[in-house]
Design a protein that fits this description.
- It is a single chain.
- With 612 residues, this protein is α/β, with parallel strands linked by helices.
- Helices cover 36% and strands 10% of the residues.
- β13 and β14 form a beta hairpin.
- The two termini are 39 Å apart.
Length: 612
Amino acid sequence: MSSSRPNILWTVSEDCPPRFGCYGDPLATTPHLDALAERGTLFTNAHSPAPVCAPSRFALLTGVAPESHGPAHHMRARARLPEWMSTYPELLRELGYYCTNNAKTDYNSDTDPQALWDESSGTAHWRNRPAGSPFLAVFNYDPTHESSVFGRAEFTVDPAEVRLPAYLPDTPEIRGDFAHYYRHIAAMDAFVGRLLAELEEDGELDNTVVIHTSDHGGVNPRSKRWCYDEGLHVPLIVAAPERHAHRFPAPGTRVGAAVSTLRIPPTLVDLAGGTAPAHMRGESLARTRFDTAGELAFSMRNRMDERPDMIRTVRDARYRYIRNYAPHRPYGTHQAFAWLAAGYRSWETEHLAGRLDDAQSAFWREKPGVELYDCVADPDQIHNLAGHPAHAEAEKRLDDALRAHVLAVHDNGFLPEGSPTEGYDASRAAGAYPLARILDVADAVGRRDPALIPRFTTALADPDATVRRWGAVGLLALPVGTPTAEAVTALRAAAADDPGPHVRVAAAEAVGKHTGDVAAAALLADLAAPEYPEGVRLEALNALTALGPTAAAPHRAVVAAAAGEPLEYLGNAARYLLLRIDGRYTPHSTVLDLEGMLARAAAAGRAPGRPA
């Protein structure tokens, strides 16, 4: 093959934070990745597009931000790819590459992996290619998945030596989760080492660019699913052989600029000699200079399994800026799969016992509208600097950048799940999605300011259902009892009569929260009935949960019926609420329908025990 076009080996460790020796972790055993970093470029500030696998893997396949093409931004969903939206394996195959994927897909879309790849299976390997063909070989390492901490094997690292972040209590269960994970990192490093040895055996090491990363950050509490560095910061190492090294910084360089792994797909196309299509927005990483001061990485969170939410964030080399669009919801809302980890159960146990300090308790409280962290001075991100005069310039700069990004990618996250306007093309149709007008309402929600009641009340009468929904959310998020009589009247009308069921859900919850009217819970129970789409029903169950078990108790039969349905996320939400209604919930309660989950995973072709 021509030396101008390298082979590419891309290894992806699932759910894996950069706890490697080359990233400064003294407890890690990662000799192969450390050596790879020595002969390549290590990105110290690489971040995933989402803090969970399916939305991030959609981005890694398409080069498109998941929030740009709903419902790919939800965990988990099935976005329909337009015929014109080419993926990187398709592009590289057109360029003559033999493309293999071993083996995880989880692309959060309707794509057929067998149509995308020359091979996509547990036996896919570059060694199966026609003689002389350049190759792109992707190997996904599953044993670092979150589920690896659900059990215990012999520790390879003493739990007492682990540094716990300041937001977590020091309990044996949490220390155990952290310490146990190091054995999986070491095994993953050995896996990468075997692949590098196979390259050398085949005489291909000197003509192969090697990339290592993860689909998102780590597996411990307040990491995966959350838009802090622990959930988004990923390893990223790119090592090029000598004949291709001129395209990257000098070997051993550590790049401190913030970069997104959304840039990997256009990098692959670039290395293969092609031109990345316009929908791949990121710039290629095959370059010798990076702008440490100016480069940004954007990430997002929307529904996580059974829990709707919406968070947007941007990271530069120093700061992380976060905007919470559901500030009335606590961070620590029970999530069935996550609670299989001993760490989450232990943390909630300490919370309920009143044994947490202020930093450790923050997770169990409602969110601030805006968060800003100096990640150099505060790597655990516990000191919120939003509104602090000394950091006002950074806050304004990143807020402006985030709004510009939301508009540029036509962020679908403001739409209710299941909206006909979801999708890359549908959300860009003229007049279909008045995003700037929606933002004028949604961006005000986090302020939770009673002075904004007129804006939210006016929004309830808007001709666009999404604007109306955000008007209702704005009133819902206000402190209890603050909406005016006029606003409450508008909420009651919307809860009863709005043609948009998602508007009715938010309005009904707002009425229940601010007035205590039992009719609000009855409206939500009606909206949780089977005649409504699953997305509406899920939001209604979450709203009932937020109103509390006393308000939900008269509607136990509706909740119990939903708990028995073969819908994983709806069932999880309903079973949790049932436990709360019956007064039987503890952090150790099993909410997940494990047998049903395994059966559905098998039917969908996913690995058992790895739904997330």
